[in-house]
Amino acid sequence: MRVKCLEFDKLQTNPTNPMISENINKTSILIIYTGGTIGMVQRPETGTLAPVKFDQILKEVPELNKFNYNIQTVIFNPALDSSNMNPSLWVKIALTIKKNYNNFDGFVILHGTDTMAYTASALSYMFENLDKPIILTGSQLPIGTIRTDGKENLITSVEIAAAKEAAKSKVPEVCIYFDFKLYRGNRTVKRDSEQFSAFHSVNYPELAVAGVDIRFNSEFIYHTENKGILKVNTRFDDNVVIIKMFPGINEKVFKAILEIPGLKGIVLETFGSGNVPTVQWLTGCIKRAVKKGIVILNITQCEGGRVIMGQYETSLELLNAGVVSGNDMTSEAAITKLMFLLGQGLSNSEIKMYLNKSLRGEISE
Fold first, then answer.
1. What residue ranges define each of the domains in the chain, with the CATH number in brackets?
2. Which amino acids are annotated catalytic?
3. Cα separation of 220 and 118, whole Å?
4. DSSP readout, 145-173?
5. pLDDT of residue 8
6. How many C-beta neighbours within 10 Å does residue 280 have?
């Protein structure tokens, strides 16, 4: 294996590159380091965590040398705490993969855990006709610490990104790998800030489980319906907001949110199977917002289950007002999908149609 570390803006990959020609028959994996705890060290003067250079991380994982892979890395400079992630950085990640797509068999993105599920969801919508793995991973402890979970997460992510069957990638979709489990990226949420099992997917099974061997659950892995040239859609519209319902929600606050200038979309996190209080001011606000052209998507606050509009009287008014059911989408999948669709120049009716349709396996059929 040959590891080459390059700055983001300096990466040059092409078929005539001597290194690539030398390793033309080897499985090639591109690791994209965006930042996060996996690449952090503790500053003794403050006690806080701050990013380190990625080449120091590679020194911490000599086990990668046992793979007979051609591994290259891209560094985002500066490295980012994932709390600073935003749509422009999703685009940067996507374009990095697009630029190098033909030269690598799989991609591993090292990312902070706090917004990893948002990035995974966004990337899943951005890539059409994806036939290679894009695996996001990170760690709860810095990779230089004795008890770090970062080594296993990185090593197994690389192995999964390289896994093939009949010369085709076993997992040609955007995934999150963490604590011995591989999840569909747009089905995953972060559930714990302290345990190594930081992520879970309640409404969809694991795509793979790593034990003595890596067991792939092939029947649950998404394969694109269209076999064509990779297309990367990079437009997002961030004129959106998430409103979480709670008992005693304030009328003035709710109205003020719906009257934000330029607001185009709302993800409404409702009770149970999609319910809201049956107070007249609330349903009146929602009806006026829909008439103004604001797209409202209804998802449940519950970890599991789905929205079933009209099952109870408390959701029937939303259905009648033109609110769209989010089915069993996660909050992360819902808000990124809404931003993505709003950015595609579609009509409101087209946006509502696609919100009800599974684009990349984010909704149960």
1. 2-232 (3.40.50.1170), 240-355 (3.40.50.40)
2. 37
3. 21
4. STT-SHHHHHHHHHHHHH-EETTEES--S
5. 44
6. 9
